[in-house]
Write a structure and sequence with these properties.
Layout: E1 4-5, H1 12-29, E2 50-55, H2 63-74, E3 94-99, H3 104-112, E4 118-122, H4 123-131, E5 145-161, E6 176-178, H5 185-196, E7 205-207, H6 211-220, E8 225-230, H7 235-241, E9 246-248, H8 253-262, E10 267-271, E11 282-294, H9 299-309, H10 315-321, H11 343-351, H12 357-361
Parallel strand pairs: 2-3, 2-4, 6-7, 6-8
Antiparallel strand pairs: 1-3, 4-11, 5-8, 5-9, 5-11, 10-11
Helix pairs in contact: 9-11
Length: 373
């Protein structure tokens, strides 16, 4: 069974609220199939206890701890202290639990099918899923997904053993390379990037390992390199760098610049120096990390979630909780989203002055707007 975490060591204060009021519920709900009991997660009533699940990724990646932080921030169990008294700024009556999954594709499929309420996804994977293009070409469009926010940029990591001889992308020929799990966004980007650089997959020994298994392969020298799309530092890579000499392969030059021009979700970026013990920064590509839901979520709940995530009081908690928290910027909450945003979230962004006239004329943003009391 997937791991579920609601109580995160980054957020001791808010977690005490959850422990005090709802520990027995967390233990109970972490061991059952919600759908079998006919629980309705799509409505919000502040007088009732509501539980939603947040799809994340591998427990050793970035999405899992970030999902735990989001769960703590948007949760506001009955009896919690009010926000202005140092308590929860979340949605009244809500408990959100972060659940480990296969990653972006897994989350998109589960959310589109109504098997999960909220999840994290790479912006490019969500774009392709909604439009049935790229990786999802020829498949049924995931037309029920809706964006809530762009949270922060993620880095494309191409990590090799220092003794593998891999210093540039063309060196991957003949090497043992993990592209990521079959349902991960890393695998999608690995295939796209290598195709752009003219590499044939038949010339690479490709492994579709999840992050934990890929890290084990690098450590045991059964793999030469791995792809990972994650906000730096990814804890698994950080830990690996303390045990194995690594090289971070740059993804740059004219081909990378062309990818940025072609695809709206790609941005030029870098892995900062010293973050993994690397002596200098490494040029790479970035994609946005989105929080998504589906059309069945009520406007009130969607509005409450984004309001809680962007509440000024919780910014320090995100920053202290994970290095990616520093990169969360409300003014960029709508950047790089190439599909429809939930109307409840749009209402909040409109009230906060983030929506412009050009936004509202964009078909990707158009959705019924309704004032939330």
């Amino acid at each position: 069974m997937s791991v579920i975490v609601c109580i995160n060591f980054y957020f001791r204060g808010l977690c005490k609220e959850l422990i005090r009021f709802n520990l027995f519920l967390i233990i109970f709900f972490s061991s059952i199939n919600f759908n079998e009991f006919g629980v309705n997660f799509s409505t919000l009533n502040s007088q009732e206890l509501n539980i939603i699940r947040i799809g994340t990724g591998s427990t050793s990646g970035t999405y899992f701890p970030i999902g735990g932080l989001i769960g703590n921030v948007i949760s506001n169990p009955p009896g919690s202290r009010p926000c202005d008294r140092g308590g929860s700024c979340g949605v009244p009556g809500l408990i959100a639990v972060a659940q480990s999954t296969g990653g972006s594709i897994d989350n998109i499929n589960s959310i589109n099918n109504g098997q999960m309420e909220v999840g994290l996804s790479q912006a490019d994977v969500a774009y392709w899923a909604f439009h049935a293009s790229g990786y999802f070409e020829g498949k049924k469009a995931k037309s029920s997904i809706r964006a809530l926010a762009n949270l922060f940029p993620e880095n494309v990591h191409l990590v090799s053993r220092a003794d593998s001889g891999i210093r540039k992308i063309s060196d991957l020929n003949g090497k043992r390379v993990s592209f990521g799990g079959l349902k991960s966004g890393s695998r999608v980007d690995a295939k796209l990037i290598l195709s752009a650089y003219g590499l044939r997959f038949s010339d690479i020994n490709i492994f579709n390992y999840n992050l934990d298994k890929a890290v084990e392969g690098i450590q045991n020298n059964t793999l030469d390199a791995l792809f990972l799309v994650s906000g730096a530092p990814a804890l698994a890579i950080l830990d690996l760098s303390n045990r194995v000499d690594l090289h971070f392969v740059p993804i740059d030059g004219p081909i990378a610049q062309k990818l940025v021009k072609i695809f709206p979700f790609f941005m030029e970026g870098e892995i900062p120096e010293n973050i993994y013990g690397n002596n200098e920064s490494v040029k790479t590509l970035n994609v946005g990390a989105l929080i998504i839901t589906n059309t069945s979520m009520s406007n009130n709940l969607a509005y409450g979630i984004v309001k809680a995530v962007w509440h000024p009081n919780v910014k320090p908690l995100f920053i202290s909780g994970h290095p990616r928290g520093e990169y969360m910027d409300f003014n960029k909450a709508l950047n790089g989203i190439g599909f429809k945003i939930h109307p409840g979230a749009l209402t909040y962004y409109q009230e906060m002055g983030l929506l412009t006239e050009s936004n509202l004329k964009n078909d990707l943003f158009l959705s019924p707007m309704k004032k939330i009391p």
